[in-house]
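Hi everyone, sorry if this is the wrong subforum. Our group has a chain we'd like a structural model of before ordering constructs, and none of us has done structure prediction before. Sequence below.
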Amino acid sequence: MHETPASLICTVDVVLLTLQEGALAVLLQRREREPFKAAPALPGGYIHVDEDAGAAAAAVRVLRDKTGIVSPYLEQLATFSGPVRDPRGWSVSIVYYALLPGNALPADALLAPVDRLPQLPFDHAAIVARAVDRVRTKSQYSSLPVYLCGERFTLPQLQGVYEAVLGEPVNKVSFRRKVEELGMLEPIEGELSSGAANRPAQLYRLRKAFRQTLSITGRGLNGRS
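Answer:
Right subforum, don't worry. Here is the predicted structure as tokens:
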């Protein structure tokens, strides 16, 4: 005879990635209550069954209510579950990841480099690692890193963002060819930025059609497929 199961803990967590000092960083918050009160953790919260249309809506709400942020890019990462990940009981968390330029974050945002995380509660360190791996993989063949840029940027600036995400240099010729294949950018007519040695550089922005989705090609950067 099976026992009646205890209540299931069902939450969403959001891994919001940005760039800080030229490297990937993740947004953390101090927990307001037990368990792990005051510990830095990912923004997260319970799914509201009477309010949220789905897990994605819950993630948008949690991120907005806890941080004041509405990310232009939010994608489901994975589901983490089990009896030992939360001391309160058997739990399931539907995790999303988001990207945002650093200058769009609140001035008092708590950021941590993804390769030097503080001790995090639950399984949040494993969640961050999974998100970073997903972003780096998708950045090889998609326009994903553009969501870490501001509204206007030069091609050298965009290449720098790709390199910061991938954690390695990118060949300039290969990068320019990949950007052209993706077809995601449009030049801003009549707008230039001072480049190296005061040489003007064309400013670009993301085409309207790509502002809520990704542009994808079949081949990766640096010869990866």
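For your construct planning: Strands lie at 9-20, 23-30, 40-41, 44-46, 73-82, 91-99, 110-113, 185-194, 200-206. The chain has two domains: 9-138, 142-223.
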